Amino acid sequence: MRKIIKSKGLIIKVQDYLENAVLATILTENGKESIIIKGAKKLNTSTRRLGNVLTLIEYNHTESSGLSVLTEGVVVDNYTLIKDELLKFNYALVMLEKINFFIEEFTDYKTLYNFTISLLNKLKETSYLNAVVLIFQIKILYLLGVAPSFNRCPVCGKKAINAALDIKSGGFICEDCHYLKETSLNIEDSKLFKEIYVTKVNDFNDELLIKIDNHININKCVKSYYEWHLDFKSKVLDIIEKIG
Ligand SMILES: [Zn+2]
Question: Which entry of 77, 98, 175, 221 is 20 to 30 Å from 123 by CA?
C-alpha cells in the first residue's frame, strides 16, 4: 500500500492537468508541494472546490518522489471575502505572484507561510488594500535575503542616523553622506519604510495603514527595489494600475 501524507497549505497556482484534473502548487509550512487533484474540473465532484487558486486546504496525498495525488481534502478557507471583490482579489494575486516567482529562493517556509496567511486575513477585513500588499512586499525582502541595510551606511560604514534609503546602494545612507547623491526616498519616507519593515503584522493599526496606503513614493521605491535587486516586474500590479 502506498503511504498517505497529511498536509495543510495554500494553493498559489493551478494548471490544467490531463483530463478533468489540475496540478496545484501549494505553499505549506515545509515548502512547495505539487499535487494532482483529480476531478477538479468536473462540475459535480467533491474535489471541485479544492482545485482553485487562493484556497487554504487540508488534504491527504500519496507519497511520491515525482508528483503526488490528492486522495482526500477539505477547504479550510475559501477566501470568499477576497474573491468577491475584484480589486481585493488582484491585490492577493500580487502576493501569490511573488511567492510563485521566488518559491525556490526562500529558505524559511514556515515564516513565509504564517506571514502570508496572516496578511491574507488582514486583507479580508481592511479597505487599505495597497497598504497590506506593500507590507508584504517590504517584509519578504528579509526572507529573500535582500533587505536593505538599515543600520550601517553603505557609503561610509558609519551608523546610519537620519538616513535615507538608496536602492542601488542597497541601504540607508547616513546624513553625512547625503550630499554625495540623491537618495531613492527622502528621510521622512525612509523612516516610514523602516517602520513597515520592523512592525509586526498584528501591530499595524488603521492609523499606520492609512499612512502607508497608496503612498506614491514608497510604492515607486518598492517597485524599483524589486527590479534592481531581484530583476522582477509584477504583471499583476500593471493590471491593478489599469483597473484601479
Ligand atoms: Zn555615510
Answer: 221
**Do 57 and 9 form a contact (C-beta atoms < 8 A)?**
yes
Q: In this structure, which residues have their CB less than 5 angstroms from ion ligand 1?
A: 153, 155-156, 174, 177
Report the separation in Å between the CA atom of 170 and the middle of ligand 1, taken as the mean of its atom positions. Answer: 13
Q: Where are the domains of the chain?
A: 4-78, 81-243
| pLDDT digits 0-9 by tens, 96-113 | 999 999 999 999 999 999
Burial classification of residue 64, based on how many CB atoms lie within 10 Å of its CB (0-12 exposed, 13-18 middle, 19 or more buried): middle
How far is the centre of ligand 1, averaged over its atoms, from the C-alpha of 169 (Å)? 11
Ligand 1 mean position, distance from CA 150 (Å): 12
The CATH number assigned to the domain with range 4-78 reads 2.40.50.140
- Which CATH number applies to 81-243? 1.20.1440.120
CA angle, corner 87, sides to 196 and 102, nearest 5? Answer: 55
Q: What is the pLDDT of residues 171-203, one digit of tens each?
A: 999 988 887 778 899 999 999 999 999 999 999
